[in-house]
Amino acid sequence: LLLGRYIQRAYGQPEQVIMTMPLLVGTDGERKMSKSFDNYIGITEPPEEIYGKTLSLPDSALPSWYSLLLGREPPAELGPRDAKRALARTLVERFYGENAAQAAEAAFDQVHIRHELPDEMPTVTWPAGERDVHLPALLARAFGISSSEARRALEQGGVRLDGERIANG
After folding, report:
1. Which residues pair with 32 in a beta bridge?
2. Which residues contact 102 (CB under 8 A, 6 or more apart)?
3. Predicted local distance difference test score (pLDDT) of residue 139
4. Reported pTM
5. In whole angstroms, what is the distance from residue 16 CA to residue 105 CA?
6. pLDDT tens digits for 50-88?
7. Phi, psi for 8 (deg, rounded to 5)
8. Distance CA 74, CA 84 (A)
9. How many CB atoms lie within 10 A of CB 139?
10. 165 forms bridges with which residues in the sheet?
11. Exposed, middle or buried, 151 (CB in 10 Å: 0-12/13-18/19+)?
């Protein structure tokens, strides 16, 4: 960077200001946060997404996230799970307010801790003339995901019909 300023000066160009900042590691805990790596949390995402994605951080990323985003260390009295929850609440509150942070936490707890159905779920209809349903195609169309992602969700037991897991499509 300093060499670039020297070269600019040698060519009679005004020297540019240099400012370096540490990069925030993505939700994978390894690479810089980036849409290209699909390891990012967008500030315009819904509060529930910000909250849930923050909780998916590996424990090793907590010190960096607290330092870069909050300017402090994770609370020493909290374990990693509770430190992530506190971070998630703070981030949602920063962009959407305290009520949205509380609602995002409640929605997360409802689905992922108490294993209850979410308050809102999409309804999918299938044309009556199509008797055979290719489940990965249906899931891809309904949720805007790829067929591969739908197959993975099925294989991992992430799809249920009337409360019963559907093993394959």
Report:
1. 25
2. 89
3. 86
4. 0.75
5. 44
6. 999 999 999 999 999 999 999 999 999 999 999 999 999
7. -60, -45
8. 9
9. 23
10. 160
11. middle
